[in-house]
Amino acid sequence: MKKILLVLSFIALCGASFAATVTKTDDGYVAKGSLYEATLDGNGFMTSLKVGGTECFRDSGYVGNQAKPEERQTTDSLTQDGNKLLAKGENFTASYTFTDDNVKIDFVGEKCRYNLRFDQERYNRWPDMSWRKARVTINYYNHFAYFLSDKYNLLVRGMEINGVATAFSVEPTITLTPRVNTPAEVEKYNDMNGIASDTLSVTSPMDYRVFQRATKYDGKVVFSGKTNGDAVRVKVSGTSLKGDFDTGFVNTTLKNGEFSAEVPVTAGGWYKVVIKALKNGKVIGEKTINHVGVGEVFIGAGQSNSTNFGQYQIVNTTGMVASFDGETWQPGNACFLGTHDYTASGCYYPAFGDALYEMYKVPVAVASTGHGGTGIEQWLPDVVPGPGYPAPENGSMYSFMINRMKQLGEGGFRAVLWHQGEHNAKDPVDVEYNNMVKIIETSKKDAGWEFPWFVAKVSYHNPNHPSWPNIREVHARLWATGVAEKGPDTDTLTGDMRDYNGNGIHFSPKGLKRHGEMWANCVSRYLDKVL
Length: 531
What we know:
Rossmann fold
């Protein structure tokens, strides 16, 4: 028998815990505390968890992947004792204890699966959050996601069991509800949720936004938003490549309640931005954004080693790396959200950003758009998602990537970093070369401006198949013809650079770090020529 303990601990505003109300319904039970509402079905499995009125579940289930309906675990008995519920099946028991500010789940099972799948996309967008994944035994991984209890209502801990012979898993990924006590906290809550303020609402810049510099020193910060005032003034200050920097307060253009400005700013950061809304000369609203940069921005694309398939997550060490997922900017740590494939393990971008920052002393950002296991033909511009196509709800891989380019805008990023090849290792060279040329050249036309693509040389599968000549020739030809800039040759990353003790196709933490450094070295050769 194996046991999982998942604790969802809500920090009550009053600091005390009391029993929640648990009510039987026609379909199961509903448990309510002061901050949450949990719904369980007739089998005793949680199907909904609302925190502060917000649904946190993306999906839920309790059987293995692709299980047939007749193979699903069922409950022999479901009993209530006050604020406690106990579900028993042939191979498992699940007990729940509900208090006013806490849900405790004890699950003991064998040859069955118990899943809690929360809204992963929104989860990592919240600030002041830490997420880590650590091996406990050969098949066990502890996942901890924890939040400052003086700011947020929710703490999540869980256990995930990985591997071919997966018995069961808990996958905690959840949306937070911040404590809202003071006007400042209300304002921060509104900002994070995109709730506009009549007094002053800022759409640009966001915290951790990096604007692509035009030259070594020259760049700009773009301001936009709304106000019911009659004037808006903005200020950027901090440390640039040339030393201390301060624009002083600059007037913006205001029309029909919307303000805008493009303020010249020397490359550097993080900068502090202050925005003030005035009416009849008096300040009626003010916002401070503490992390705005003018530096280097990149788009990541390709298959799994361009997304979040690394063995474990790694973090940046400089504090000068950011990510963009198409909606929000955030610190560039652990997984980079915004990929086409929703992955959430390790990626090389934190190490890439660190290495590039150490070389150029400007903030670095990456928008990751790739999808694991995809071939070049799936990235072609004319592909239409259909049955069997990965994540069709996100549209085609190509259109997804182009949309990110357009969100950043003309001149809004330095280059595309393409890491792909494993899928097409044995395909005809001429066919895949022409496909890559089509993707690269069409992307520039559709984005509306010229930018370089960096293409890695990659074909590694495992120690028995470390290199495949066909796709490597495609990459080499792209370099030789000038269609793409040289990326790293990552087939050289073998042994302990790979996961599963060197037997896997993805990177270990050591490999992710080296992967990022190799990318930075390739990009630096280009930057040294154009800056």
